[in-house]
Amino acid sequence: MLRRRPFERRLRRALLLFSVLPSLLLVGAGAYVIARAVRLSDGVGAWERVGGSGGELIRRAEQSGDTALVRAAARHRDELEVSITNARRWEYLINRTMILIPLAGLVIGGVLAFLSLRASQSMGRRLSRPVEELAGWAGMVARREPLPAPDGRAAADEFATLRRAFRKMQAELAAAHEAELEAERARTWVGMARRVAHELKNPLTPMRFALHTLRRGAADREDTREALEVMEAESARLEELARTFAQLGRMPEGPPSDIDLRELMDYLLRTHLPPHVASSLVGPEGLPCVRGHHDALSRAFANLLLNAGEVVQAAGGGSVRVELREAGAQVEVRVLDDGPGIRPEHVERVWEPDFTTKARGTGLGLALVRQTVQAHGGRVWARNRPQGGAEFGVALPAARGAESEVEMSGAGNRQD
């Protein structure tokens, strides 16, 4: 069953009306003008009147007895007879033609109507199909279904422009939807993390006091002392975990300051990597500072270096390399390791709060890194290196004086 196309039918009727009606009016008006002109000319009647007056003149000339006048009258009579005969023949043809003119007008009108119908059908299909296609695309966008792939045909008409606009709109809507989902996931994790931090902190304080009391009373017993050391270590880990949960979704208060990333990374490489892990720092002198909160950025970069050091240690050896460079209005920091790299299916997930590959990991470390960098107006990325190992990158805006301070203060307030 063919699908009904009311828009195409309405368009076809409009095109047919505007093409056939003027044509029929022109044909009818032309036939009327021709008929009216023939009637007004009245050629036969005129020749009949000329013949009547000429006959009277010829009779009088013949009665005059003038030989020359008689011969002229005879020639005139012959010319009048020929002219009247031709006029009557022409009248006969015109009368028959006047009968055929309306019929010819109807035939021409029918031909024009047929051609107009075919043209209107073609134009209607060409105009209605793209409209229906775009209407279908609108439904697909509403249902978040992928649009058909481009067919590769070169087109520069208005519908091609609309198709490109639809594809751009779908891409922007998909990006906005993904960003909204990411923001919703982040809000969910922030709320949960803070609740967990609150629940952890409540029993930790009395536990620490109780452990301190037990240690004083069991200082002379070796087995008890070892058990207490384990409990203290685990309670300290829980306390650090609570602090990590509490930091999620919250930036430190206070005004930002200019931070020398070369100096910061040099310090972190010396303090946050095991002594047996080789490290290097590469970057130009005079690198622009960035504007931000020193403690927050220090924790973020320390997390990246600690992860790289753990990966290198687990791989049985290797090095950690930090590269800094200026890229336009940003300063980029790349942390490179010689580990096994990132699994392809994990590349897009490493920044998620609920993702970790460590046996005792919380999955919040890289999420805090991304949150901190984004709060400073930057971006992060993770990928595998062609020569082996992984690369974790951070790009931060270079300091721009007072303007940066205002922007960072606003970012800090929004995160708080």
Helix and strand content put the structural class at alpha+beta
Adjacency order of strands in the biggest sheet: 2-4-5-7-6
Head-to-tail CA distance between termini: 61 Å
Relative helix content: 55-70%
CATH topology type of the largest domain? Heat Shock Protein 90
Q: What is the residue-averaged pLDDT?
A: 75
CATH-scheme architecture of the largest domain: 2-Layer Sandwich
- Number of continuous helical runs: 9
**Sequence stretches where pLDDT stays below 50 over 5 or more residues:** 401-416
Global outline: rod-shaped
Q: How many domains would you count in the coordinates?
A: 3
The largest sheet is: 5 strands, mixed
